[in-house]
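User: Hello, beginner here. Can you help me understand these amino acid letters and fold codes? It all follows right here:
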Amino acid sequence: MSSGAMNAERLLDVYEQISEAPDAIARLRRFVLDLAVRGKLVEQDISEAPEQVGLEPYTSDAPYELPANWRWMCIGDQLDLLNGMAFKPTDWISEGLRIVRIQNLNNPDAPYNLCDPAMARDRSLIDNGSFLISWSGTPGTSFGAFIWDRGPAVLNQHIFRCDFQTDAYTPEFLKLAINGRLDEMIEKAHGGVGLRHITKGKLQAMLIAVPPQVEQHRIVAKVDELMALCDRLEEARKTREELRDKLTATSLARLTAPDTTAEDFPTNAAFALEALPALTTRPDQIKTLRQTILNLAVRGKLVEQDAADEPATELLEAIAVEQNELAKAGKIKRPKPLPPVDMALAPFDLPVGWSWTRFPELGTFGRGKSKHRPRNDPSLYRDGDIPFIQTGDVARSGGRITSNTGFYNEVGLAQSMLWPRGTMCITIAANIADSGILDFAACFPDSVVGLVPASMFDNARYFEYFIRTAKANLLEFAPATAQKNINLGILETVLIPLPPLAEQHRIVAKVDALMALCDRLEAALTTADTTRTRLLEALLHEALNPATDALEAAE
């Protein structure tokens, strides 16, 4: 880039290269402001005399060097900063003068509190054209300069009315100049992670660049032009995202529509699985693709059925026989009989060979144990080496529980129960219906329910995949309390679509493969986002430091 001019064509060139980067347009807006306050947005005219005020283009404490006919000036040399009033809720009335708070500056639609005009101090009154600086708020949303255009009002505290002391700046350019230094304002502010403040003294001492007035007008016009272009780009991006979302929703609807025939499904599935990766541009969108795969899996629409497979009814009969034998041997409690499945409650039709079943009919099913209160008693854990997991471990597991937050000792184990490796865990408190399969034997409290599948099953993978699809419905059973929870009885009534055992194996293998594909797609999108962000940083650096880059290249 030359010593000046950033134009719409250059901005479009930059945008085309980073259009899918996170916050690309917001970053481009900052980019335009950076160029504006550094004298790199429009060409300089050396015949335009610098203002006869301020410091030289480069001083020892200046953040960067300015064009030769620009100057540095402290905000306090230009503006008299008059703070707003500290209104109390008891000052508010139903009709009167509007009180301008920080949220009113950032959001024109935010409601106003009103006060009696007689109580407003003259120094806090504003009208159209008043120059304002908010000096308190959350970083990135509240700090900044504004030119008021909404009629008579009075300022609340944390906003300065700024009265000009010289004519070195036009208000429009000074607004750009201050907002181009927001990072420095935030850096100088004090306070916690949320609300922060910049003191009057620090604000008065901030250096702001002063171009010749004729150039100020050119810069403001160019910024307006480029910001309007950013508005159009933002709208185009929104339209593009909405179209992608509609195409994605249409693809998924074709797969799960109740009237989809067996003949139509392979075509629809092929279309969706080929189209969705192209329509997916953000890692968070992969969640929808994963959920669709799982929904298809438990509806018998992910792999082919084989009429030679032993039907699920025979599998359930074999499980019932095994459970009775284990109960007779005293190895498990005798399962309580469940009422017949009410087919009127079935959420969808099953393929031939499938059956509706419930968790207690699939193996050992029950809540964890932690009889001792309080549960954090050190006597349960001291020198322990028996893994103990809690709801958070299940929630973070991603389906496979490979870590634990604590260890029981023998005292802890005595008041609990050790569940074997391969147990599927389901949370019923705090995090509702999160699930994972134990990668090791472990204890867990009664806020977690366990399923040890019958011996016929190689693992609980199919059931863990199912519970992910059912989670939303399980949440609907949770009472509207501060800590949502569901009970074991509710889980015992959940209808589970059970395929033939051979088809289960095919389903799990297919889901595993597709989830691995989702992992790769997610990683690729994350990498692409990182690449776009780095490219954006490089483009900004090149635009802001062309002379330095050229010198380094020459060396």
